[in-house]
Specification:
Elements: E1 9-20, E2 23-35, E3 40-44, H1 51-59, E4 66-71, E5 89-92, H2 104-114, H3 123-128, H4 144-156, E6 162-166, H5 174-189, E7 193-197, H6 201-206, E8 209-214, E9 217-223
Parallel strand pairs: 3-7, 3-8, 5-6, 6-7
Antiparallel strand pairs: 1-2, 1-4, 8-9
Helix pairs in contact: 2-4
Bound molecules: adenosine-5'-triphosphate and magnesium ion (MG).
Adenosine-5'-triphosphate binds next to strand 1, strand 2 and helix 1.
């Protein structure tokens, strides 16, 4: 793996407006942020503060009205979550975007298939996310929490240098929130940048860095000590 020095992604002065009838909503109002390998960052902030918009712009799903996004390595422009360059950047959208014609194992294997690099779902990853017993099931025949862990496994399949998760622990019980935090932290400590949008105090407490958004602006950006995770 190439060592990445400097930010994995740099967002500069990004603005995003949405039109709702005659009204214009300023979802992001000049946001600048850089993410580095080795850190788990949590984007916190109230509902409507711009977290999803920021992640979508970083993932290339939304385009900014102004400002720039640079990734290292650079990403080609992409339109849909299932067209992401999974090798470089993986997204766990809130709606998960699993393909229901594919089994759990096939969904996890999808990035490897699309990027023609290796094959299969990675049995160790399925085990780590407690979905190995569901490998042959279709997502619609699994629970919301299991579907969410499948989407996390899919995102990690190619161990991308940038992992983005939009409330990726929202359907989990406490034990599974801890499990996912351990997985995210491990991925960060392997040298990758991980950004998770969350309201969950346990998730915020596990972060190396917390960015708080309010009304489309970053109002605080702090690094914090965390307790040791397994
Ligand atoms: N497609 C859209 N059309 C119109 N307005 C939108 C659209 N997407 C987001 N917005 C508005 O932009 C603002 C930021 O929304 P965003 O989804 O980024 O917030 P959020 O912090 O992720 O909130 P939540 O915690 O509820 O998920 C909100 O005012 C929202 O209503
Ligand atoms: Mg959101």
């Amino acid at each position: 793996m190439a060592l990445i020095t400097g930010p994995v992604i740099a967002v500069e002065e990004v603005t995003r407006r949405f039109r709702r009838g005659s009204e214009t909503v300023l979802a992001l109002a000049g946001v600048s942020v850089e993410l580095y390998g080795g850190e788990l960052t949590v984007a916190a902030g109230p509902s409507g503060s711009g977290k999803t918009t920021l992640l979508s712009i970083m993932a290339g799903i939304e385009r900014p009205d102004a400002g720039t996004v640079h990734t290292h390595p650079p990403l080609p422009p992409r339109q849909r979550p299932d067209q992401l360059g999974w090798r470089h950047l993986a997204f766990v959208p809130q709606a998960l975007a699993l393909l229901d014609e594919l089994t759990v194992a096939e969904n996890v294997a999808l990035p490897a298939l699309l990027e023609r690099t290796g094959t299969g779902p990675d049995p160790e990853l399925l085990e780590r996310l407690h979905i190995d017993h569901l490998a042959g099931r279709y997502p619609s025949h699994t629970s919301g929490g299991e579907q969410q862990r499948t989407a996390v496994a899919r995102a990690l399949r190619l161990r991308p240098p940038l992992l983005l998760g939009d409330e990726p622990t929202g359907h989990q019980d406490r034990a599974r929130v801890e499990l996912l935090l351990t997985v995210f932290r491990q991925h960060a400590y392997n040298g990758n940048a991980v950004l998770v949008a969350s309201h969950d105090q346990d998730v915020i407490a596990a972060a190396d860095r917390v960015i708080t958004l309010a009304d489309g602006r970053i109002t605080s950006d702090t690094r914090q000590q965390t307790r040791t995770y397994g």
